[in-house]
Specification:
With about 325 residues, the chain is an alpha/beta fold. The protein has 13 helices and nine strands. The chain folds into two domains: about 150 residues, no CATH class; about 150 residues, TIM Barrel, CATH 3.20.20.210. Strand 6, helix 9 and strand 7 form a beta-alpha-beta unit.
Length: about 325
């Protein structure tokens, strides 16, 4: 059996390893409940065979970088060294490391101004908006340069620019204000650590914008909400060009379906996304405390049941029942 690092490397090359790699995103209370059920000293992620570990970088003590009249936090040397040690310890166990998520350029532009300004200013004062976006991108490039030096296997960034039906801005606006800045972040990471894979988080609909991210060298698209995307279309159209991370819906699966229905949906999801590699299974977003523990355990059971790659040569995953 492969370890998580070998498994992850294979799917990134669009190969089929022993099984689909996976991790679930759980709110702390759910994680604590799972740990409590398993008993003292047992980590639910180890028990259920998760492949990826998020290593948080502490910002409680931070340095600052000055960009014009604004200050942006950067983690301290001590915090980065702590993250490096934790990441190395995870790697020594054969697992994959990823940094905790920092909101992206557009998300910060909204936070520093407001939602309406961040959208309308692209039309009303494009030069001003380019300056705002550029300063945020300068900061995030510096931040991800530090993250790349830590040595994370996956450098995790992104921008929430999807809605349930479309992107929040048109493609031309994206290209004019954000595309090259997202590209700068990717190039910064790979310039420091060529072995790092770059994952980009975006909730919601990504059909129209995914080719832009493939064009700038993105390795992994994370979230992939099935409620907002046609999984079969994305796999067929882009499955050879990028790795998908997510696809287990919360709105459609965890909140409304029974454990038995979740099993059927997991079977369908894996049958679409797993063939040919290029897929890491995960909840599309963090599962909140309203989700029952039994539903979380059902996802793990379904991953074990359907996530194995069939080595008979017919290209199926799971227990052989997929058709």
């Amino acid at each position: 059996m492969l370890n998580a690092r070998e498994r992850f490397a294979a799917v990134l090359l669009h190969q089929e390893p022993d099984r689909v790699p996976y991790n679930l995103l759980l709110y702390p209370q759910l994680a604590k409940q799972l740990d409590a059920e398993l008993g003292a000293g047992v980590d639910y992620r180890d028990f259920y065979g998760e492949d990826i570990r998020i290593v948080a970088v502490d910002y409680l003590e931070h340095s600052e970088i000055r960009l014009a009249d604004n200050y942006f936090p950067l983690p301290s040397i001590a915090a980065l060294e702590k993250a490096r040690r934790e990441s190395e310890a995870v790697k020594e166990r054969g697992l994959v490391t990823v940094n905790s998520y920092m909101p992206g350029i557009f998300e910060h532009a909204k936070a520093f101004t407001n939602d309406e300004f961040a959208l309308t200013n692209m039309l009303l004062d494009p030069d001003d908006m380019r300056k705002i976006v550029g300063k945020i991108a300068d900061w995030l490039c510096r931040l991800y340069e530090l993250y790349a030096k830590v040595g994370f296997d996956i450098c995790f960034n992104g921008d929430d620019i999807g809605t349930q039906q479309s992107t929040i801005m048109g493609i031309q606006s994206y290209r004019e204000f954000y595309k090259e800045n997202h590209k700068r972040i990717i190039q910064t990471i790979k310039g420091v650590n060529p072995d790092a894979k770059v994952a980009f988080h975006c909730c919601g609909h990504v059909h129209t914008i995914l080719p832009e991210w493939i064009d700038i060298g993105l390795d992994i698209i994370q979230s992939l909400q099935p409620e907002a995307n046609d999984l079969e279309y994305l796999k067929n159209a882009f499955g050879k060009d990028i790795t998908f991370w997510g696809a287990i819906g919360l709105q459609s699966n965890l909140f409304y379906l029974s454990p038995e229905e979740i099993d059927d949906e997991m079977r369908r999801c894996i049958s679409i996304m797993a063939p040919g590699g290029g897929f890491v299974a995960s909840t599309a977003n963090f599962a909140t405390d309203e989700v029952s523990i039994e539903k979380i355990k059902q996802i793990y059971r379904s991953l074990a049941k359907y996530g194995k790659y069939d080595k008979t040569g017919d290209g199926k995953t799971g227990d052989g029942s997929l058709s």
